[in-house]
Every structure is written in C-alpha cells, then in structure tokens.
C-alpha cells in the first residue's frame, strides 16, 4: 500500500465544478491537492443548473450534501409543453414520492452556489492549494510523477494529474487531440429577478417549451427570488465553439410561430450570454499513465440531458473510490476509474444528442414526440430514469467489472 501523505500532491488542472469535486474526493483519500486555474479567480458564471438525485448522492459522498441541499430549490415537477400550441407533452412529479424513490431530490440551483459549496468544502479541509492565473500548457510524466508547466514556464510536480480543464481541455489536446463537433445550436442564458418574471410562468418546476428547431427553459433559483431563462435555437450562420455576449436583436429574430406565453421569455432579459455549443465523439481512453481526464474534458456533451455537471461530480466520487479500492496505486486506480465511467458518460453524450432531436422536432416528428409519453404515469417515468438517478457511491464501480 502507498500512503497518500508520503506522496507528492495530486495536480488538478481546472477549478470548475469537476476540478473542485475531484479535489475533495482526493483529499478524502488522504492526498494533498494543488488546483491550477487559468482564471484570475476561482468562480462560476451567473446561470442556473438542474441537478438530479445522482448529483446529490455525489455531494453526500464528498461530505457537502447538507451545504448543497441548503442552497437548492426543490421543484414539484418537470414539465414539457409544445411551444406552438401549449399542448402538455409530459409531466414528471419530483415531489416527496420522487425523493423517496431516488433517495435525494431533483433540484435547481445557481451554478455559483454549487461551486461555492464545493469550494467551501475544499477550503475547510486545509489540504487544497489554489493557484489562479495559472494556465496549464505542457505536461510530461515518468513512472512515478507528472510535471506540468504553466504559461510562464513555472513547473508543478505531482504524483498524478487530473485534467478537469473543461470543454477545450489542454490535457485532452495533448493526449487525445480529437476535433470538437460543433452543433450549430446556440444557447442564450440569463437570470431574471422575480419582479420582472411573468406571473403566469412562476411555476415551482423545471419547465421546457419545445418547438421546431428551438426550445425554451425556465425554472426558479434562490428561493424563487430569481428565474433562470435558457433559450436554444439552430443558428442560421456558421458557428464556432465559444461563449460571447448575446444580442437581444439576434435572439428576437428566432422563435417565429411560438405561442405568446412561451415567446414572452425572450423579451425579459436585459443582457444575455451566448453559447455556441459543441460536443465530442465519446472515446474509450481517458487515462494515459498517471494522467486522466474528468468532467467536460473527458466527455463534453450538449446540454439536453442537463447532466454535464452531475457527471463531473460522479467522475470525482468514482475516482476516489477507485483509489480507495486499489489503496492509492495510481495506475490501477486510474484504469478502474476509466472502465467504470466511459460507457455511462458516453450514454449521456449520445442520449443528449437524441434528446436535442426530440426537443426540436417539426412536422410529423413533432407529432411522434407529442405522442411519446401520452398517459404515462409517474412510476413508469421513474423506472425509465433508474439507470441515471439510481447511481450512488455504493454502486459507482460496478460497471468496471464488465468493461
Ligand atoms: C447551456 C448549458 C446548460 C447546462 N445545464 C446543465 C444542467 O442543467 N445540469 C448539469 O449537470 N450540467 C449542465 N451543463 C453542463 C455543465 O455546465 C458542465 O458539464 C460542467 O460545468 C463541467 O464542469 P467542468 O469542471 O468539467 O468544466 P468547466 O466548468 O468548464 O471548468 C473547467 C475549468 O478549467 C479552467 N481551465 C480551462 N483550461 C485550463 C487550463 N489550460 N489550465 C488551467 N485551467 C483551465 C477553466 O477556466 C474552468 O474554470 C450545462 C452546460 C451548458 C453549456
């Protein structure tokens, strides 16, 4: 057995949700962790996020379940309406019955609050060192250690490197070098104060309006004092992967033919952020010696399953469990981690593409979509979600036995 305290620290590239969750999981295995973050501060963008029970199982395993639950809004249901005629396509209760079935809630929360819970948890351990303004640029490794260089040529040496550096991962670029798949789907996001949000849409729900080549999402944040608004459309122009300031005129030029109740959402925000989205083809290898990938660096996905951050936190917990199983033997643990995670996260990437097609259906496909869940009761929905929300620290390594 190798004791964690006798080893070099573990280096984590990226201080986002995945990187911080990884830091917490590693500290719980006894490691000292160094987080390298390119941004001037460790923080998150101002937008909401949906979290399934699997995310809360991960928070619990990382020791910050109570912090995260205290900052979330528990919705009563998820609902999908056809954005043309307001037809209710499906409704899934996420009330007490749902919580009992999956052992944790479905919730909506400000991304900054998820990030804060993880950051506080990491800081409280006293074993995570943060370096901001530090962009990982180059990596070398030998049998026993990894060395990482930043943009100023400064070197950081660790026992292993976790590449949690997001969708445009430098770590992935060095070891995999695969191209992104730009979708041409553009997402606009904004947070609106309750006083400015239409009363007829102030539902305690994760709500989606699905239309031809577009959809609109809204849900409450911070005790219902704010609402998250997200709208997506197929762009007319050639897109490049990235985030920019949005333009009110652009977003208003889409969503023709959408019912007034849904369309009012696009007139609300004073300012928008604009994401031109992409994913990558799922790959079977994330681990290269003492280096592995985690979160969006490992399995960037479109957002239609609302699971990217949930998966990043699952990755972190699974990495910690693999290290515990192999008594901190890095090559064995990283191999097990990869085997446990590849198929599950690829399923999210592929299902998310399919979900995007279902959301944005038109013509006869739209009729098929509106018929898909007609008359389906809560139990049948819950059974269909078991593979996703039934994940927990106790079963997170099971898939490694079959891979
Ligand atoms: C529109 C939209 C809606 C979404 N909705 C949901 C949802 O409802 N539920 C959900 O679970 N997920 C959702 N997601 C996905 C979720 O946001 C991501 O999957 C999640 O943030 C991934 O976390 P991460 O830590 O892997 O990557 P990131 O959050 O991208 O963090 C990466 C960090 O690494 C830093 N970094 C990058 N390169 C370097 C480098 N070379 N050196 C050092 N630091 C570096 C970055 O600055 C950043 O801080 C959504 C995504 C989008 C785009």
Task: Give an overview in words.
The protein has one domain (4-179, 280-401): 3-Layer(bba) Sandwich (FAD/NAD(P)-binding domain), CATH 3.50.50. Helix content is 34%, strand content 26%. The protein has 12 helices and 19 strands. The chain has helices spanning 17-28, 53-61, 65-71, 96-102, 111-125, 170-175, 248-252, 260-267, 308-325, 330-359, 363-371, 378-389; strands at residues 10-13, 33-36, 48-51, 73-74, 77-82, 88-93, 107-110, 128-131, 136-141, 146-150, 155-158, 160-163, 181-193, 205-211, 214-221, 226-234, 242-245, 273-279, 291-293. 48% of the residues are buried. The model has no long low-confidence stretch (mean pLDDT 95). Bound molecules: flavin-adenine dinucleotide. Flavin-adenine dinucleotide (FAD) is lined by residues 13-19, 36-39, 49-50, 135-136, 164-167, 170, 187, 189, 275, 295-296, 303, 306-310, 312. The site of flavin-adenine dinucleotide has 32 residues, from helix 1, strand 3, strand 13 and helix 9.
Which class of secondary structure composition applies to the elements? Answer: alpha/beta
Low-confidence stretches: none
How many E-type strands?
19
* CATH homologous superfamily title: FAD/NAD(P)-binding domain
Count of alpha/pi helices: 12
CATH architecture descriptor name: 3-Layer(bba) Sandwich
**CATH class categorisation:** Alpha Beta
The share of residues in helices is 25-40%
Unique ligands = flavin-adenine dinucleotide
**Rounded to an integer, what's the Rg over CA atoms?**
21 Å
